[in-house]
Amino acid sequence: MPAQPDASAIYSYLGPVGTFTWTALNQAPDAAGHEWRSVNNVGEALDDVISGRSVGAMIAIENSVEGGVSATQDALASIPGLRITGEYLVRVDFDLVARPGTALADVTTVAAHPVAYAQTHLWLDKTVPTHAHLPATSNVAAPTALLGDSPADAAVAPHGITQHLALETLAEHIGDNTNAVTRFVMVSRSGRIPERTGADKTSIIVELPSDAAGSLLDMLEQFATRGVNMSLLESRPIGDELGRYRFVIDLDGHVHDERVADALLGLKRFSPRVTFLGSYPRADRKPVVPENRYRDEVFIEARDWLRGILSGEPDAGDVDAGVAPGQHGAADQGPQAG
Prior knowledge:
One of its GO terms (cellular component) is cytoplasm. The chain has 338 residues and is an alpha/beta fold. The chain folds into 4 domains: 8-92 and 180-192, D-Maltodextrin-Binding Protein, domain 2; 94-171, D-Maltodextrin-Binding Protein, domain 2; 193-292, ACT domain (Alpha-Beta Plaits), CATH 3.30.70.260; 295-325, no CATH class. 27% of the residues lie in helices and 27% in strands. It is built from 11 helices and 15 strands. It has helices spanning 20-25, 42-51, 70-78, 114-118, 121-127, 141-145, 215-224, 258-270, 296-310, 316-320, 328-333; strands spanning 10-14, 35-39, 56-63, 67-68, 83-91, 94-98, 109-112, 132-135, 154-158, 168-171, 181-188, 200-207, 230-237, 245-252, 273-281. The strands form 3 sheets. Strands 1, 2, 3, 4, 5 and 11 form a 6-stranded mixed sheet that branches. Strands 8-7-9-6-10 form a 5-stranded mixed sheet. A 4-stranded antiparallel sheet has the order 13-14-12-15, sandwiched between helices. A hairpin with a 3-residue loop joins strand 3 and strand 4. The longest helix has 15 residues, at 296-310. It is elongated, with a radius of gyration of 27 Å. The model is unreliable at 1-5 and 321-338 (pLDDT under 50).
């Protein structure tokens, strides 16, 4: 019988209720009906997973405007045994909220998470040109503080936060980029790799053996020669000395795809460290269709061909051409004088 789900499972997320991470966790089927634990940062969320307090943690890993989330990337590189089991996309939409009775003209100080502030500062500079920024620890911590003794007059908050907090909306949709999206991933300690769907992504972290000329090209060729597309490539300093970097990479495809598996084997041959973070369904469910020469069957056929050569079997090409083994030389010599 299949294992029954753990009724006591706990999932960690950057809280409190109403954050974009909370919204992402609402998209995860495995987390439905279980306890959700609000934490203050990525480190605490991953520590919950490593310690066993939580079976999974929802964390932000990439933003369409700001790029990769460095704190998440560095944590995944330094903490062993973690696996990404799914990804979720959340549209980044901000409102400006305040205490009841506050007018937009009254705003002089705005509380906001630094990332949220970076994504709304053009609107703020134009609409509230003399405002000061008060940093907050999360997108919900900023408006929540307004219910206490915060010196801020208003806060940048996720759209719809007034459904959870007794605040009023001064302005809606104030983000500078209306197409902004944040990508979240579910991280666990499970060794189970989600089944291949045909619309998958594989995440890895790779270190180069040196900063010698051509090292980066050697890494990139492992993917190019096997038809594996990279949807994310970002460098992060390793931290032990200048000039030493690791690369955070997302590949289109699943580790069970022959081309992806072969690329990982190629990486492992020359890289001092390859960290496999997981293969999982793409959030957009867009199928990954390789060129014909990179289909699984082509890799399998090539392996079978080589296996036949090593075992002494006749080359299928020779048999198809009607040439018996060992006759190439005789044919090349031409007719003999009699």
